Amino acid sequence: MQKIDYALIVTDFDGTLARSDGTVSEKTKNAITRYVADGGRFAISTGRLPAAIISRAKELGLVGAVCCAQGSVIVDIQSEKILLEGRIPNDVAVAVCEAMQARGLHIHVYDLWEYYSNMDDDYLAYYEGVVKTKAVLVTDKPMSQFVKESGMRPFKILAMVDPQENERIRLDLEKENFVGCDVTRSSSLLVEVGNAAFSKGTSVQFLAKQYGVDIQKTIAIGDQINDLSMIQTAALGFAVKNADETLKAHAITLDKTNDEDAVAAVIEEYGYTNA
Predict the structure, then answer these.
(1) Fewer beta carbons under 10 A from the terminal one: N or C of the chain?
(2) Number of domains forming the structure of the chain
(3) Band of the pLDDT at 48, cuts 50, 70, 90?
(4) Exposed, middle or buried, 122 (CB in 10 Å: 0-12/13-18/19+)?
């Protein structure tokens, strides 16, 4: 058994821990298993909802908390008990949907265990294939009307967009100044709106407190702008080689991609003490 140095490692899933085909390599699985067996805490912080990540966390043998929807909902992996939640107020969610509708965007609205889509198209088919969960279609009325009538207070609302238009749309929606919300990007296809009081950064703080780990002994690893807050919160923040250039400017950039066991490399080089 080797002595742990950085006692908590928090990683993004898609584009960071998972390879391009959605799998996690045996090398990375083994590195995680060893690190946890030696006393480290390893956690996933993702934009996915619980239904799309809990099974993947179990595949890795993880116990404890998994952080979902950009840190706005944290769930215990084994019991599926909600440990923390930060929803968007209904009236604000309606306003977000209205703004997206006015731009003709493909919208997803995320409740706890289900998500709703206003379009049944190739984008949705691709997304469902990635997260292995099916959307509930809302095509008989505007999404904003559905959200208003249901009284839903979602965890996040996203738009699936052409990668060439992502930054333009993100900045355009940011100008709407949705009350108490943050607009970010979690992939080249996704622009997301969530409660600004909750982020992947606050999820690192929550986990550190939950596990009794000094924040100065935490590591975060990511690939997209939505990972920036946790990169800046953790003592060491890493961007995988395939990361967004904006994130790289604020992180320690690794020389390995998600397809080259970047997370395993961080565990092996930084998780343990050299003494």
Answers:
(1) C
(2) 2
(3) very high
(4) exposed
Name the nearest CA neighbour of 158 among 177, 140, 181, 183.
183
Written as one letter, the residue type at 148 is K
Name the residue type at position 80.
E
CATH number, domain of 251, equals 3.40.50.1000
Q: Which residues pair with 107 in a beta bridge?
A: 159
Per-residue pLDDT of 113-133, as tens digits, reads: 999 999 999 999 999 999 999
The two structure tokens encoding residue 184:
């970010």
Do 210 and 78 share a structural domain? yes
C-alpha angle 97-51-234 in degrees, rounded to nearest 5 = 85
HSE-CB of 49 using CA atoms within 13 angstroms = 23
Q: How many residues does the chain have?
A: 275
Question: For residue 250, how many C-alpha atoms fall within 13 Å in the half-sphere facing its CB?
Answer: 19
The 3-state DSSP class for residue 124 equals helix
Collapsing DSSP to helix, strand or coil, 126 comes out as helix
3-state secondary structure 234-268: CCEEEECCCCCHHHHCCCEECCCCHHHCHHHHHHH
Global pTM? Answer: 0.92
Task: Say whether both 79 and 206 belong to one domain.
Answer: yes
